[in-house]
Design goal:
heterodimer; A: Heat Shock Protein 90; five-stranded antiparallel sheet; B: alpha/beta; five-stranded mixed sheet; 5 helices; binds adenosine-5'-triphosphate; binds magnesium ion
Amino acid sequence: MADTMKLHYTVDADDFTVAGEASGAVKKVLKQLGFSSDIIRKVAVAMYECEINMVIHADGGVIDVEITPEKIRMIHSDKGPGIKDIEKAMQEGFSTADEKVRELGFGAGMGLPNMKRYTDEMNITTKIGEGTVVDMTVYVK
Amino acid sequence: MTVKEIADRLKLKAVCAEENTERTVTGCYIGDLLSLVMSKAQSGDAWITIQGNINVPAVASLTDCAMVIIAENMQLDSAALSRAKQEGIPVYTSEKSAFDLACGIKECL
Ligand SMILES: Nc1ncnc2c1ncn2[C@@H]1O[C@H](COP(=O)(O)OP(=O)(O)OP(=O)(O)O)[C@@H](O)[C@H]1O
Ligand SMILES: [Mg+2]
């Protein structure tokens, strides 16, 4: 078994000044480990979208990243309101973002579709009033 | 053309231009909705936007854009500026519209 590198990040609620910090940090680590720019882009974009969702739709949360030479797995867990209808949320253009975050450029309803497109595996577990876990894996081919 | 050459040619105002200005620009994307930019912008693009918040340098870095141009005299806020410096993303502003900027860039590619 190859070594697994484990990273852990905390994402604060409503803090746009640090949003993207976790994905930025992981991007640097992957670069140092010598992953291809294609893999790095996939992981960083998926993580950034998910991280931002935790800030704007939930109350922040935690991210666990596992890196092996074969795959990169990112598990985003929040204790936010949960997602009512996952199928609907996955549709391009669906968004419940409010005016305040739309002014910042969010709310295209493209975040979850981007995560799906940039990762090889994506699983969402959610419970209304309890929270959401988005578990994504990118394989290194 | 390089970032610096385009900046000179289009008379852009430098906001953050300490690093990576010798990189060649290979394309252009216009957009203000960040996750759309995230799915469409290509590595080496000049990204034209009217957004100026902290997420702009973050998205530019994730998509590996060569430069950001903020159109219509919109400004980069201070948190965004320090992030742009940290990420080494060249950022410029211009009073021109996104259309005029894109037309200018087309002639530079
Ligand atoms: N962690 C989450 N907790 C609760 N709801 C969520 C969460 N993530 C996504 N959602 C819901 O799913 C919808 C779609 O998410 P998606 O990321 O695709 O779009 P968006 O965040 O609204 O806009 P964009 O990502 O394009 O800026 C959101 O508007 C929100 O209602
Ligand atoms: Mg989103």
